[in-house]
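Can anyone check this?
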Amino acid sequence: MIELEEVIATTEVNRKNISFTKEALMSCAEQINSRGSPHLIAHDRTKLVGWCYRSRVEQDEAGYWKLMAQIYVPETEEEFAQIRENYAFFMEQRFESQTESFREYPKRFSDPVPLLTSDMACVYLCRPNITFDIFPWVQDGVDRDGLVGFNDFKLIGDGFIQEGEYLLVPHRFFRKSFSISNLLNRDFLGSVSKLARETKESIKLKVDPDFVGIADSLKEFVELDYWWGPKFDQDLLNIDLGVTRHVTREGTIERIQGLLMTEFFIYSREGKRVVQIEELSESRVKTSFFTDCPYAHRYIHTVVDETTGAIEHVDGSYRFYSEEKWNERISSTIDKAGRADNRAKLFRLDAPISVENWYSLIHTFYKDNTLIAEYFGLEITP
């Protein structure tokens, strides 16, 4: 085992404007010392890399208290098997504790009875198409891309819509690795919520057909994965036409997570400036929707009026590739590449939007990808 030591949290105000008390840090240390804690890549609960086995609270020279953790990183398969066993037990205990008060909910439904599942913030009922059973208006309002208008609703938490005892849930494609155990992309959904409040035009989002949240289970859960987008308010018409490819550098968190590059394609067509952005990744994902397509690339499409410079439309989706099509895609550029095997549109806005809001939307959509800011000539503060 490789042994590391890290600062987990401090009493100093962090970039999310949160400050922990000394007592809270000591409580966390007690929990880690009693049962351990998983060490993950970018808070992705499908990417276990180590185990926090010991912790302490100490004071630094500036007078702040800090939570220190000692972490084991396995080097052999035998060591990693032990870490996985610890993790499975940890997650089982957390699930039992989190769902204890909600075990009667599945009994309210006829066969097939839904299952209980959860992320760190909410408990869910899981069954194929349960969303349409509880929210019948959703099925009536879904468009051909599977999107639902959100302007008439107040979004709570990570982008949920509450109706009575239940929560309408954004699609699992908004979660890292498409896993229900991971939190939703709250930075992006926060941008969507902001736009929904500011515009009366149609902003639409993909909802999950198979998961419904239990409103009383919803809790605030903070992941200290600070993602800050520098302000961008330039004229998109001033960006050069053509294809640009930005490649990840070895050793960066993006490269470790499998991101290879991001391509930008700007072109003119019938008085419109079209902006296409596609992220290319070698990470394989599992999804019940496209089982023969293990590669998923985030994609943005934007239309700008060349006369006024106004952004008229923006949508985001995943492009899914089979092994064969993926090899063809990474060997080509975005302007010459063939069609993906499948796609899933996640959001669409057909309304004027400021450049600043547009950039906030795409920057948070591509969370953990610094190549977006790099292309636009911006610097992300570490």
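Reply from J.R.: I decoded it. The chain is about 25% helix and 35% strand.
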